[in-house]
Write a structure and sequence with these properties.
single chain; 2 helices; 4 strands; Heat Shock Protein 90; alpha+beta
Length: 101
């Protein structure tokens, strides 16, 4: 997001994507957004969308790594974005058992 973009985060007790989700972490900004044709690929390792290539700071690793970690923990991640308005990422946290408990 550009330096003047507003970024916010919140944790809510709502369900995300699956009935098993017990909490949702929402991270949103008011940045330049992501082009619609790039959204299906944002979780691919090494993919940098058009807007990410404009600022030349994107590596294409962040969202891919987040998804990989969350998948291994049985959690979910989704993304919504509108060009010129910003992006919202939702992380659905599901209750999991800890080995040894």
């Amino acid at each position: 997001a550009p330096p003047d973009a507003l970024a916010t985060s919140a944790a809510t007790p709502e369900t995300l994507a699956t009935p098993a989700a017990t909490a949702t972490l929402v991270i949103a900004d008011t940045g330049i957004g992501i082009e619609p044709e790039d959204i299906p690929r944002v979780f691919e390792r090494g993919f940098t969308g058009y807007n990410g290539r404009l600022d030349r700071k994107a590596s294409g690793i962040g969202l891919s790594l987040c998804r990989r970690i969350l998948d291994q923990l049985s959690h979910t991640i989704t993304l919504e974005s509108t060009v010129g308005k910003g992006t919202k990422v939702k992380i659905g946290l599901e209750e999991t058992e800890i080995a040894g408990d």
